[in-house]
User: Fold this.
Amino acid sequence: MRKFSLIMIVFILSTTLAFAAQTATPSVDDPATPVDAEVALITGNSVAGAKIQVTGGPQQLSPVYADDDGDFEITVGLAQESENSFFITAEIDGEDKSEAIQVLIVEGEEAAQAYEEESGEDLTAPDQPEVDHDSIETDKLSYTIEGTGEEDTTVLINGEDSGVTVDSDGTFEIEVDLTGNGVEDTFDIRLQDDAGNISSKVRVEIESGTENDEDEEEEEEEEEEEDEDDNDFSDTRGHWGHGHIQRLRALGIVSGHDGTNEFRPNHSIGRDAILKMAIEAFYDDDEIDTDEGDDLFGDVPRGSWFRHYVRIGERDDIIDGESDGKYHPERNVTRAAALKIILRTAKISIITGGNGDFADVPTDAWFAGYVDWAKENGVVGGY
Assistant:
């Protein structure tokens, strides 16, 4: 039995596919390549406050935001002994996502060593730091993490510069604040050398048990609010699609935006995300295998979080590539393209050609049949 019904179409097409001006394409600094590292730093400039999204690589990355000068940086994981392809876009509120700019980073020990010998540049990351303890319980609200690493490297905590440098004897100490109330805080420790190379991480987990009356009261209030919200997104109450959104969330098809409790129902959606949502909605769990396959579009790199969805989409004739032979997962999806993806995923047969109900849908357009079906079944209407 499918997880969801065609009511999803009404929700998606009516809440996520709006037309707006397009954010300017960000500029990206040339990264070091080839490198011998597990992670790399991508830097660049965009509109101040713009949301910067990076797709590609072995992990799905949370976005970062450009500072007041428009500068941004984001740490990306690297597939080992491979060419890693990343696509960087910018987006500000009220505008569509920018065109993507592609960055290639080659990871390979031998290639990096050969380039270092030729150029004299340092392209090798520091070794992973070591910590005295990686699992700690304390009744305090702060803790000093002690460890060792490469001399004169900067210690990063959760991707941020801690302001601490490894001493000449190879040791470092960092005091971190803790949440308390039995919460386990997680700290990812990396080292960055003067050339910008970043080590792999060591994770430190600290559970702190201190609790006071004020904390207890706040916790009780938060629990009461959560019960009242009934797992609602904070920005969908009162929205006409609220019920559809909650059903999608309950089924695990959608989640909060960037790890928050906001859904942002009127924002645009990318080609990678719409395909994932459609497959998660209309396929059974055992039909969604994670095999990455071969001979896929050139801009869908092996190891990227969305590759298996694209492989399923191509295999099952849900999607086609663009005229340049690429899929362009980073682009915002149009209403017509989203309709095609959803109806094909739902295995609905469409008659080619249209009946001319909409002035901007020519009867011979490739999407005319999809639009006609959607209109006849009450899924879409005109503007």
Remarks:
- The first helix runs from residue 7 to 15.
- The chain has three domains: 7-17+228-348, 21-119, 130-208.
- Residues 15-19 have pLDDT under 50 and may be disordered.
- The two ends are 34 Å apart (CA to CA).
